[in-house]
Design brief:
The structure holds two protein chains of two kinds.
Chain A: E1 2-6, H1 10-22, E2 27-32, H2 42-48, H3 64-67, E3 70-74, E4 78-82, E5 87-90, E6 95-97, E7 100-103, E8 107-109, E9 122-124, H4 128-138, E10 143-147, H5 151-161, E11 166-170, H6 183-195, E12 198-201, E13 206-211, E14 215-220, E15 225-227, E16 230-233, E17 237-239, H7 242-246, E18 255-257, E19 268-270, E20 275-277, H8 285-299, E21 314-317, E22 320-326, E23 335-342, E24 347-354, E25 357-364, H9 370-378
Helix pairs in contact in A: 1-8, 2-4
Chain B: E1 4-6, E2 12-13, E3 49-51
Antiparallel strand pairs in B: 1-2, 1-3
The chains are: A alpha/beta, B mainly beta.
Chain lengths: ~400, ~55
């Protein structure tokens, strides 16, 4: 049996790894648009910050794929999939047959419909090539505007700031990380960035990225303008679905798959950032993992259902641990919030109660107790009498059963 | 000994188990892992791990 994987990123590579572990004999070939083998994307931030040299961003040692008898066809883009005769065609015109195909085509950085994104000095950060180009540019262009104050935008801001560049984050929403933080926690996070020397502009609608051939700055609809030598757009990602669409497969936001990661063609599977499962495109590493593993099993005819991924409620933003869970923003009759905030330390703890039961929480600036508070919220524990003590550093969670 | 979780992919490093596939014997503390050690699941470095409590 011959399996072809389109996409050499996390989903494609980890699916290949799983396939080899499950079956020593199946033929596996990965076609990747990028010339480099798989690297974990968080490493690009480490590279940008100068903490990790480019040659060290890769996950597996050189020669790993060959040892696993996985054919790596890097820099060879698949331009067409023909489900009817089960072949793929590369940009060089080569046609390759498959018995089973995995589309792990990933996602690309979204560019907002703002005039000027084509100017020299405008960057996205999605691939290693993007990261290298940005790092090169920043060596002699110091004033940077990051368009987008989400997780990626904030990580880029911190990484670029490490080099002493002048960094400004411009965010459309009226606070940072609105999906993870309430306004008070978001304000503390903003303060932490300002302490690092990063300025943060909220509620900002970008009118244009201005300049001549090169970027000279960013203008907002409010009339405010910031001069800049580099603009980094961190405005989310969009699934890469064009191959699937042209092959006639079902595509909505992503390539539509069932619980076996199978597309509308029984010999074609999809996994990772390109896949849409039960209406959802995840775009997060743990989901890509679980999908790749499920796809690998089902591609070999072993039945393994994928039921979706529960996104972690803990993340690390700019070195700060952030846990948010449940109805952390709930207010009004029936809800009670207990808050402990120490802005200077970047510490914010909040628990939301409904009739004495924990229904939501935010834990920022510490991971101590984060797993415990998540458990209390998951099981909606009655914490009524201890509600204030819970926020203390020394609280012993074993007191609440 | 403390366990550490990879914030990128969710892999948990358990010192009692170590990472024998990559030459780390059981009983190795997270702090004692070599500098070049990476998450055996997704390949990110130690700095992206956080302590589980």
């Amino acid at each position: 049996m011959n399996i072809i994987i389109v996409g050499g990123g996390l989903a494609g590579t980890l699916a290949a790894k799983a396939l080899r572990e499950l079956d020593p004999d199946v033929g596996i070939e990965i076609f990747g648009e990028e010339k480099q083998p798989y690297y974990p994307r968080p490493n690009l931030i480490e590279f940008l910050a100068g903490r990790l040299p480019a040659e060290k961003v890769f996950a597996f040692t050189e020669g790993w794929a060959a040892k696993q008898r996985i054919g790596l066809r890097l820099g060879e883009t698949v331009v067409r999939v023909r489900p009817a005769d089960r072949t793929v065609e590369t940009a060089a015109g080569e046609s390759r047959p498959y018995d089973v195909l995995l589309l792990a085509t990933g996602a690309r950085a979204s560019l907002p419909p703002v005039p000027g994104t084509e100017r020299k000095g405008v960057f996205v950060l999605r691939t290693l090539d993007d990261a290298i180009a940005l790092a090169d540019h920043l060596r002699d262009h110091r004033r940077t505007v990051i368009l987008g104050g989400g997780l990626l935008g904030l990580e880029i801001a911190r990484a670029v700031r490490t080099h002493g560049a002048e960094v400004r984050v411009v965010e459309f929403f009226d606070r940072l990380l609105p999906r993870q933080l309430d306004p008070a926690a978001a304000a503390i996070l903003k303060g932490q960035f300002e302490k690092m020397g990063v300025s943060v502009v909220l509620g900002a609608v970008t009118q244009e990225i201005f300049g001549d051939g090169s970027v000279r700055g960013l203008r907002l609809e409010s009339g405010a303008a910031f001069e800049a030598d580099a603009v980094v757009v961190a405005a989310g990602i969009k699934p890469e679905t064009s191959l699937a669409r042209e092959a006639g497969l079902a595509v909505a936001k992503g390539i539509v798959v069932d619980d076996r990661m199978r597309t509308s063609d029984p010999a074609v599977f999809a996994a990772g950032d390109a896949a849409e499962h039960r209406g959802r495109v995840y775009g997060i590493i743990p989901a890509a993992f679980e999908q790749a593993r499920a796809a690998a099993r089902n591609m070999l005819g072993q039945d393994l259902a994928y039921a979706g991924t529960v996104p972690a409620n803990t993340l690390k933003v700019a070195g700060l641990a952030v846990t948010s869970i449940g109805e952390f923003g709930a207010e009004g009759p029936g809800f009670e919030s207990i808050v402990r905030a120490e802005p200077e330390q970047g510490l914010y703890k909040k628990i939301v109660l409904q009739e004495g039961r924990a229904v939501g929480a935010i834990w920022m600036g510490t991971s101590k107790g984060a797993a415990d508070i998540s458990r209390l919220v998951t099981f909606k524990k009655d914490v009524g009498s201890r509600k204030r003590d819970i926020l203390e550093d020394a609280f012993d969670f074993s007191e609440i059963s | 000994m403390d366990k550490y979780e990879c914030t990128a992919c969710g892999y948990v490093y358990d010192p009692a188990v170590g990472d024998p596939d990559n030459g780390v014997p059981p009983g190795t503390k997270f702090e004692d892992l070599p500098d070049g050690w990476v998450c055996p699941q997704c390949g990110v470095g130690k700095e992206l791990f956080s302590k589980l409590d």
